Every structure is written in C-alpha cells, then in structure tokens.
Amino acid sequence: MLSPQVVIIGAGAAGLMCAMTAAARGRRVLLLDHANKAGKKILMSGGGRCNFTNMYCEPGNFLSHNPHFCKSALARFTQWDFIALVAKHGVPYHEKKLGQLFCDNKSSDILGMLLDECQQAGVDLRLDTSVSAIERAGSGYRLTTSLGAIACESLVIATGGLSIPTLGASGFGYQVARQFGHELLPTRAGLVPFTLTDPQLKTLCTELSGTSVEDCRVSCNGQSFLENILFTHRGLSGPAILQISSYWQPGDTVSIDLLPHVDLPEWLLEQQRERPNSELKTLMGEIFTKKMAGLLAEHWFASKPMKQYTPAELKAIAERLSDWQLVPAGTEGYRTAEVTLGGVDTREVSSKTMESLKSPGLYFVGEVLDVTGHLGGFNFQWAWASGYAAAQYV
Ligand code: FAD
C-alpha cells in the first residue's frame, strides 16, 4: 500500500502549487488526477498564453460569501511571489493591460515550470487515477483508488469547480466536503457569456456577431466594469460582460453604456447645430462601425437628418445609447464558463491553513472553495495562494 504523508487530489493550478511547496518542505507528497494530463486548464487559459496573475491583485477582486477569507492567503503568497518564480524559471511574460500578466509564448511555460518544481521536490504525480472512496482512518485518511488503497496523514482537495467538464471538471470536491459535514453554497457559472432570447435583441446580436465595442460600462447590482463587449450569435460576451456575469442573477437587468466617455446629450446637440443635414446613422458610423450604426438605427431609432429630431427624441437616443437596459435569458453555463461561483463554505475552513474546521487533516484549496476572482489573472492567483497556504501545514 502506498503511504505518502500527504495526498493531493487534483493536479490543476492549486494542487500543483500545493504539491511542490509541501514536497519542498520535506513532506512525502502523492498528487493524483483522474485526467490523462496535469493542468489542462492552465494550458487552455488566457487564450493559450495563461494570464497567470495580476499586478494589482487585492481582496476586492474576489467574490465570496465571506469576503475576508481570502485576505490572509493572498497576503502570504502574493502576485510578486509568483512573478519571482516565473522569473527564476526564465519564463518570458508581458503586461497586456490592467496589470494582467501573460506568457510571451505559451501557457505550457507555466505548466512546465510547476511540473519542474514538483519533480525537483520529489512529488509523486499519478495521472489517470480515480478515487472511489475516502474514509477517516485514525488521525488520517484512507483512500480507495484505481492504484489500490492509500493511507495519508493529510488530504488536500484541489479538484476545482464545475466549469468546462471536458477539461476534467467534476463535482468530486463538493461530494467530499459534504461527506465530512461541510455546508456547500449554491454553485453557478461565472465569467460566462450571456444568452438572449428576446427576438429583436437576438437578431441584433446575431447580425453584429463578431463585432466588439471598446470601453463600455456594463453595470448590474451595484457593480460596474469598464471594458470591451462582444456581440455573439447567442448574445453578448467580451471582458466587461464576463465580469458582470459573476454578479448577475437570473431576472436581473444589465445596463450598458456604449459610450461612457462621450457626453451624449451635448454631442447630439452639437451635431444637430453643426451638421443639420447629416443623418444620425452616418454620424454614429464615425463612432461605431458603419454596420453597427446602421443596425442600431434600424432597431432602435428611425434615422433621419439631424435637423428633424426634436429635443425629446435626442434625449431618448442619448438615454438608449448610455443606458441600454436588457435582461439576459441566461448564461452559456458551465460549458464555456471560466469559473464556478459558490462551493465549499469558507466559514468552515481555516483562512490561515485551508484546513477543514470539521475534519482535521482535510484541506480545501483553489476554486472548490467559495472564492472567485474577477477576470484578469485573479483566479490563478487564488489557486497559487491557497495552495501555498495549505502546503505550510499539511
Ligand atoms: P483546476 O485547475 O480546475 O484543477 C482541478 C484538477 O482536478 C483538474 O486537473 C481535474 O482533472 C482534477 N479533478 C477534478 N475532479 C477530479 C476527481 N474526481 N479525481 C481526480 N482529479 C480530479 N484564470 C486566470 O487567473 N487566468 C486565466 O487566464 C484563466 N483562463 C481560463 C480559461 C479557461 C478556458 C478556463 C475554463 C478557466 C480559466 N481561468 C483563468 C480560471 C482558472 O483556470 C481556474 O480558476 C483555476 O484553474 C482553478 O484552479 P484549481 O486548481 O482550483 O482547479
């Protein structure tokens, strides 16, 4: 029977960080994954270039029912610690925007770095391994796995959330949490595109599919993000939409200011004064693409020469462009979501050690916990920080 001191289930971002750090402390670590490859999400991330952290990472970038929980781990393994690791391995990277750090080359640079560290520290990594049962045995745990029975002192659950099942996601971590008496907070897809069913809206989005609009302000439930939006065949996507999706609940209205940097009432009056014979859609074509201006004119307001609009009509146009209100039919769900909101209730986990307050020796790290970052490298920073925190105590 294998008898490591520490078993980590899930060789994703958090599991790899936890394994390499615990093994570097001298712990005998077995890292298991049911997939045929470690870190599949790392490989897919950031469009293949892994947005591995964010220079401006702070607790305010995370959603959780317990917003204080993430603070301690984030402070003990910061974005600068991860950047130092990346630099030590000579992985070239750059800031894309808003503090988001991406690999110059490929995400496999980050995965390779983590696997290298695991190997150097002596982590025993076993892929294609399933775990069918876990039970308490003395002060530790006994696992029934496809490798046979395994006993350990500390068991770390690093199995992530539910997003993208084809990349190995499973609800396993939630089952284990429930088995050992933990409360689960309802899970839902986050950082995910919206779908629309309203026929008029859907037609507009389909016709504009592939068009993006820069720097829109998208707001919902008191939160707002200033970023690009993207029209898709099914609805709306793009960074600002993905960000707000984490704050959206079914039935909520989302407001989009398509031109937050323009004083629209003033701009429309100015155009009316200075270009009275120009059609509205021609003028809007100077701001948006011609196609978008034409479609907005078709769907939202009859286009005519500027001099023909009444002040009330101009006011309504300004309002429509700066406060486009829509109620998404839903989201694309876990199939395309980058993250899972909710999960293991952090009120029953130590924020210092990530250890269960219900079952000693059991730890939860990464996305399986009810901690979800904004888009921009924050989710990986949580995986690194929580994995590192647990590794000090396993
Ligand atoms: P994961 O990385 O999901 O790892 C969980 C591991 O557990 C997997 O290897 C899985 O195979 C394994 N596992 C699951 N169930 C079992 C089981 N029953 N038995 C054994 N093993 C199991 N975040 C960023 O910060 N920057 C980005 O650029 C970014 N891009 C993303 C792009 C995509 C397409 C997606 C889906 C997500 C992206 N994210 C990004 C989010 C980020 O990938 C996750 O938040 C992060 O990987 C979570 O780390 P984790 O270790 O908790 O879980």
Q: Which properties best describe this structure?
A:
394 residues, alpha+beta, FAD/NAD(P)-binding domain, Elongation Factor Tu (Ef-tu), domain 3, 2 domains, 7-stranded antiparallel β-sheet, 5-stranded parallel β-sheet, 22 strands, 24% strand, elongated, binds flavin-adenine dinucleotide
List the helices and strands and how they pair.
Blueprint: E1 6-9, H1 13-24, E2 29-32, H2 40-48, E3 51-54, E4 62-63, H3 69-76, H4 79-88, E5 93-95, E6 100-103, H5 108-121, E7 124-126, E8 131-137, E9 140-145, E10 148-152, E11 154-157, H6 172-179, E12 184-190, E13 194-195, H7 199-208, E14 212-220, E15 223-231, E16 235-237, H8 239-245, E17 254-257, H9 264-274, H10 280-284, H11 290-299, H12 311-322, E18 324-326, E19 330-331, E20 339-344, E21 362-364, E22 372-373, H13 378-391
Helix pairs in contact: 1-5, 1-13, 3-13, 7-11, 9-12
What's the overall average pLDDT, rounded?
Answer: 96
Radius of gyration: 24 Å
Helix content: 25-40%
According to DSSP, the number of beta strands is 22
Characterize the structure shown.
The chain is built from 13 helices and 22 strands. With 394 residues, the chain is an alpha+beta fold. The protein has two domains: 236 residues, FAD/NAD(P)-binding domain, CATH 3.50.50; 138 residues, Beta Barrel (Elongation Factor Tu (Ef-tu), domain 3), CATH 2.40.30. The strands form six sheets. A seven-stranded antiparallel beta sheet has the order 18-17-14-15-16-13-19. Helix 7 runs antiparallel to helix 11 and helix 9 packs across helix 12. The chain is elongated, with a radius of gyration of 24 Å. The relative contact order is 0.20. The mean pLDDT is 96.
